[in-house]
Amino acid sequence: MVGIIKTPDIENKLDILAASARYDVCLASCSSNSHGGSGRIHDPKNPITRWIYPAHIPGRGKVGILKVLQTNVCKNNCSYCTLSAHRDRIKRVSFAPHELAEIFIKFVQRRLVHGIFISSGVGFNIDSAMEKMVRTAEILRNKHNFKGYIHLKILPGASFNLIEHATHLADRISINLEAPTRKHLNTIAPDKNFVTDLIMRMKWAGDLIQKKSYTKSHTTQFVVGASDETDFDILKTVDWIYREAYVFRAYYSAFQPVENVYCSFDNNNTLLREHRLYQSDFLLRGYGFRFHDLIFDKNGDLPKNVDPKTAYAMMHPEIFPIDINHAEEKELLKVPGIGPLSAQRIVKTRRKNPFHNLNELKRVGAIVKWAASYIEFSGKQEKQTKPGYIQQWLFDEMSSVQWRTGFEPYQKEKIASGMSLIDNNLEPYEYPGQKGKRLIFAP
Ligand code: SF4
Hints:
alpha/beta, binds iron/sulfur cluster, two-stranded antiparallel sheet
């Protein structure tokens, strides 16, 4: 470590603040996770690597990232967090902006990392904590001329000017909602105001990025299973923030009680829930699905035994089988086993060479064992495409409980008022933007 970390004090701080940062998954496709693994690139022969995480950055591929907190001092008491103020046994430390910038630049000079993710506790004063992160990024950009990836966390309640400044410096920013509604956030993070501290900041970030900013996108994260939220609650809010706050994507982190963190809810299913939420999220972002297309059980959770796309196909026999040679691309995307890339290839290939069987379909990347029951080739289904015992078993499973779509709760009100489906379930708030106040509807 000689040459990079000069004092045990700095090394100790880096150990503490890099370890605490691992719970945030909002970093592109960072492989750190909440499942017990740290996700770090730890090469035992090179101890420095214990602070580095692999991440997939759009346009830059898989690179090493220093993932670190500016400080772990925090006045808040979020029940799911190891840094809560009431946890008095942890050592509280902070990096001054120049300190963190200089350590990081040494990592860059050694070609150990290509980017940095900076998050932080809120300290005793939110703006002061936010300012330190922004200042670190500023030193990296202006003093060290660093052109690589910077991701800054926006703290709940941070002021508009600091958020705007962050969007001039960072490639990506993120604001973690953690819970899908005011009620749920209140049970796990009573010091944060869902609408004014988070949703409003998210809207500001979205508006700033839509104009002109260095930041290309902003993201968010939900802790799954820390309160009694359902998948329905989470995905309804996700659908809303994608449309209204231009959030690029949401991350889901299964809540796992760590180090005596209190949780009063059943969290046995959180890893499977996390998986199903990611699958549904892909449908919303890349497959043309809307929230009201998703299928939930009577408790408001996604099916456990089938993936959300198969659940959709099973609950909509009226639109299947879909004709591979004539359906539009957006219809092909509704078929289990056909993704955006294979749908594009199908449309391109069939112009000259229509498909006749599953083998030909397999060649363009479709997963035919999933697709077989839901497709036909110019009006003909292959023999083996008839639902087999697995499909029958799934169908029985689906039929044995009461299911509903995201559409149903809003349907009545829509008919009564003629208003938009989703907004009917939202409440109005004053949104103080740059041009005076206006009303927004928030979950
Ligand atoms: S504000 Fe952030 S750092 Fe502080 S307790 Fe809550 S989640 Fe943890």
